[in-house]
Design a protein that fits this description.
Blueprint: E1 11-14, E2 27-34, E3 37-42, E4 46-50, H1 51-54, E5 64-67, E6 71-80, E7 90-93, E8 96-98, H2 102-110, E9 119-129, H3 132-138, E10 142-145, H4 149-153, H5 160-168, H6 170-175
Parallel strand pairs: 5-9
Antiparallel strand pairs: 1-2, 1-10, 2-3, 3-9, 4-5, 6-8, 6-9, 7-8
Length: 185
């Protein structure tokens, strides 16, 4: 059986019957992947809270926060499309950058250079220890897909799981039609 390759910048799409409630119908952007472990953010779980409600002394900013994953849920991370405007950010996929100077971020938001459509905030992250993700891939827990910046900055989070599988085509388009809660009459 061919080994499934995952790289930083790939998406992991949960198989339709994943039992872990943290990852049910999740789409995860991989930001780091190495032999030591992996880190990414669930990009399709919008929470009902705004970033300026969670961070003291943050500018008024109508950007919802997303559930990035079950690890360190007391931390905030961000993905954006402003690249070099935000020093110390790292490009993880074409047109998608991770992190950057936080004080500069607040300045750019205050001056309306960064708008809500340019950035997504994540509470916590998804992490895998050495070899854990490879095992999950081997048993079919995840489908690996290509990233498109529109998935983060333009797509509806509630439709993203289906959208990514449909874009993959072939049998994945069929998987995308499996209802969220199948009725076994």
């Amino acid at each position: 059986m061919e080994k499934i390759q995952v790289h930083s910048g790939n998406l992991l799409v949960a198989e339709p019957f994943m039992l872990d409630p943290n990852f049910k119908r999740a789409v995860v952007l991989m930001c780091e992947h190495s032999e030591e472990g992996s880190l990414g953010f669930i990009i399709n779980r919008k929470l009902d809270v705004y970033v300026d409600e969670l961070i003291d002394e943050f500018p008024d900013f109508p950007a919802k926060v997303y559930f990035g994953g079950p690890v360190q849920t007391d931390t905030i991370h961000y993905l954006h499309n402003v690249g070099d405007l935000l020093e110390d950010s790292r490009e993880v996929a074409r047109g998608v950058f991770w992190g950057g100077n936080f004080e500069k971020l607040k300045f750019l938001i205050s001056n309306e250079v960064i708008k809500p459509e340019n950035i997504r905030f994540y509470l916590g992250y998804s992490g895998w220890s050495e070899g854990q993700l490879e095992e999950e891939l081997k048993i079919g827990s995840w489908v690996v897909a290509d990233m498109d910046p529109n998935y983060i900055f333009k797509s509806k989070p509630s439709k993203l799981w289906n959208q990514v599988l449909n874009h993959k085509g072939d049998r994945y388009s069929v998987i995308a039609t499996i209802p969220d809660t199948p009725n076994w009459n």
